[in-house]
Write a structure and sequence with these properties.
Number of strands of chain B: 16
Distance between the termini of chain A: 23 Å
Order of helices and strands of chain A: HEHEHEEEHEEHHHEHHEEHHHH
Structural class of chain B: alpha/beta
Shape of chain A: globular
Order of helices and strands of chain B: EEEEEHEEHEHEHEHEEEHEHEE
Largest interface: A-B, 27 and 29 residues
Strand order of the largest sheet of chain A: 1-8-9-10-6-7-2
Strand content of chain A: 15-25%
Strand content of chain B: 25-35%
Oligomer: heterodimer
Distance between the termini of chain B: 32 Å
Number of helices of chain B: 7
Chain lengths: ~350, ~325
């Protein structure tokens, strides 16, 4: 499949948009007309051709521009990418996984050739041709995790497993929904989920942790998470809050369609072979309200979800100021007809 | 990294290693590489023994980076339930088996400044893979390996040759040479981690001494594979699937459930990982908890059971399965 990579921006003039095909492959996170937290994990296996689940590390038309945006973020703030010293083996595991998956999913864009530990990586969209020795970090321009995650869409956290817990000990985080790797690094699973409301009380994190501690090699799992973002900004970090927080005051009935975005995270979790660590991929997808309503099922469902969302979640996700304006705008597209089960367009 | 899970393999070599110990080499039938793994991992080996489907966990002892083949070593156990007898007496070169993906419930702490392994008998196997990985990653380790006598002990000569006698210490019961546990525990630098694998009595004794000497729990690691102990036969009613099955004397609940064609989750099959935790709806008799996973309160409550190793002393149990 040949992808036409768009040239666009996620800041300043915000020229990001989705082509009609990309709208239809958006991983819409609601399988019914309401939403609540659950341990909603399923096997991360290949899904329908053309969908966001077609390849296990998804590459789409935003790839090149997202990588340019990541480079800008890192230039301003190198602490978005950190790895504690004991994570080097898991960094190599991560590099191998991403290279293998991108080369397998998109052979016309990526090629990996291996001769023992002598590897040759070709990334055509970014014009990279790199020969290196697997296991020898001095043969790459960056440490292995930073090297490969400058070439892969989504945020990446590598969590170490010890003492029956998971520890956030490495990551590349530049497209995050208001959390900070620099703040969370070294924390365990319960600590970094501390701020999430309601889910603790219903035991979601105990169950999720137990599940993940037994995550098996060769059997990755995925879940969808979501929030909303004003303007198509990838880097909504706490560090940059002054740049994007005020955007939430700018929503009017006239600009909802272009300004308000549903932000979906396709999260996948992989047991890494050499290090026994877990790679946590948080791939962010954005869609404008005017793009979302081109799929009638989603246009009916999303205002219903927003209307019935528990108030704690409205606050935690930062939707308070523009939720009603968005519901009012979307409701024009909801004729009240029943919606079909599942997340995919009819 | 492969996404499919189980791997069909052919036995390509069976090598006698010591008295009652054999090494088995497995290569994939489809010619694909074996997944690389981390030292300390095991695989679950599924074997057809007549009408019986056995599934036993074995530590991987081959080099974790060697994707040509996996190797395990097993001890022929006298009062075996049949797994080791099958491996030693029935399995032949050329036979096929099904292996799970590698699972590591005995990983080393990558932050450790120094790693001390204490092995008893066949408990050496996970350490062989760990040392291979640590040697390559230039980590500091030493092995203290207790064997009954020099003909029973597996690999002690090879390991001493490969890593040097300054790092590999052998202790022989028959020669009245025992691991000086107190001395070893009392003289380690900060950041040292201890790993024990062997008979249950040995593991308990070493861990108790380590705790007594002030070692933090986070620095103590052990792995024991329990074979499901035998017991009296009883009836199990599976509520969700609406079936009633009989659990035989030499059968675990999990094995009886699988024999009835019902898929139940499992990973270690040794009472350690927690994957097969099952709700007990009711029971007539006493639960015999043999696992290392449930908290004492859970065991007392009588509402949970680890069906891979625990059973009922009584007539009937109803499970949420």
């Amino acid at each position: 499949m040949n992808i036409n990579f768009r040239q666009e921006t996620f800041r300043g003039d915000f020229t990001f948009k989705n082509s009609p095909d990309t709208v239809r492959r958006f991983p819409f996170p609601f399988h019914e007309d309401s939403y609540m937290y659950s341990v909603n994990m399923e096997p991360h296996v290949r899904g329908a051709p053309g969908s966001a689940f077609d390849s296990l590390i998804d590459v789409d038309e935003h790839y090149v521009s997202e990588m340019q945006d990541r480079a800008l973020v890192l230039k301003e703030d190198p602490l978005r990418c950190q790895a504690l010293p004991h994570m080097m083996t898991s960094q190599w595991d991560t590099l191998e996984l991403i290279m293998e998956q991108q080369a397998a999913g998109y052979p016309e864009h990526f090629t990996l050739t291996r001769d023992g530990d002598n590897w040759h990586w070709v990334n055509r969209p970014l014009g990279i041709d790199q020969k290196f020795v697997f296991g020898d970090a001095s043969t790459l321009p960056y440490e292995p995790m930073e090297y490969i995650t400058r070439q892969a869409q989504g945020d990446f956290c590598i969590v170490d497993q010890r003492d029956n817990n998971l520890w956030m000990d490495a990551g590349m985080v530049t497209t995050q929904a208001d959390w900070s790797l620099d703040f969370d690094i070294g924390m365990n699973f319960m600590e970094w989920h501390g701020p999430v409301p309601l889910a603790h009380q219903i035991g979601v994190f105990e169950r999720a942790l137990k599940f993940l501690l037994n995550l098996q090699q060769g059997k990755p799992v995925r879940r969808l998470n979501w929030t909303m973002t004003i303007n198509p900004r990838l880097d909504t970090s706490p560090e940059n809050y002054p740049k994007w927080g005020p955007d939430r005051m700018t929503v009017t009935p006239e600009n909802v369609g272009n300004k308000v975005h549903l932000r979906c995270e396709l999260q996948s979790l992989w047991r890494l072979p050499r290090s026994n660590a877990i790679l946590f991929v948080i791939r962010c997808y954005l869609i404008k309200m005017e793009e979302l309503v081109t799929v009638p099922k989603w246009a009916r469902r999303f205002p219903r979800v927003l209307r019935t969302l528990p108030p704690e979640l409205v606050d935690y996700k930062g939707l308070t100021r523009y939720r009603q304006t968005t519901i009012d705008w979307l409701s024009k597209f909801d004729d009240g007809a029943p919606t079909s089960p599942g997340i995919f367009p009819d | 990294m492969t996404i499919n899970t189980d791997m069909t393999v052919r036995v390509t070599a069976i090598t006698p290693v010591a008295e009652k110990v054999k090494r088995f080499r497995f290569e994939r039938v489809d010619g694909q590489p074996m997944p690389v793994f981390s030292g300390g991992a095991h695989v679950v080996v599924a074997m057809r023994d007549g009408d019986l489907l056995r599934r036993n966990p074995y530590s991987l002892m081959s080099s974790p980076r060697d994707s040509r083949a996996y190797e395990i070593s097993t001890l022929r156990v006298e009062n075996s339930r049949g797994g080791s007898a099958f491996m030693h007496e029935k399995l032949k070169v050329g036979d096929t088996l099904v292996l799970s993906q590698p699972i590591n419930l005995f990983p080393f702490d990558v932050r450790g400044r120094k790693h001390i392994f204490m092995a008893g008998g066949i408990g050496i196997t996970p350490f062989i893979a760990m040392m291979d990985q640590m040697h390559r990653e230039d980590r500091s380790f030493e092995l203290h390996y207790a064997i009954r006598n020099r003909s029973h002990g597996a690999y002690w000569k090879d390991l001493a040759e490969r890593y040097g006698t300054h790092r590999v210490k052998i202790y022989v019961d028959d020669e009245k040479l025992f691991i000086p546990v107190d001395n070893i525990l009392g003289s380690q630098p900060l950041g040292t981690h201890l790993y024990v694998c062997g008979p249950s009595g040995m593991i308990d004794a070493v861990l108790a001494k380590a705790r007594g000497a002030g070692w933090p729990d986070q620095n103590l690691h052990s792995e024991r594979f329990l074979a499901p102990p035998p017991g009296k036969s009883f009836r199990a009613i599976l509520k969700k699937s609406g079936k009633t099955i009989t659990v035989g004397t030499h059968q675990s609940i999990l094995e009886a459930v699988e024999a009835a064609g019902i898929d139940a989750p499992f990973l270690c099959r040794g009472g350690a990982c927690g994957q097969c935790e099952t709700g007990v709806v009711s029971c007539e008799g006493t639960l015999e908890h043999n696992d290392h996973y449930l908290e004492p309160d859970d065991k007392k409550s009588g509402r949970k059971i680890m069906i891979c190793v625990s059973r009922l002393n009584g007539s009937e149990i109803t499970l949420d399965l």
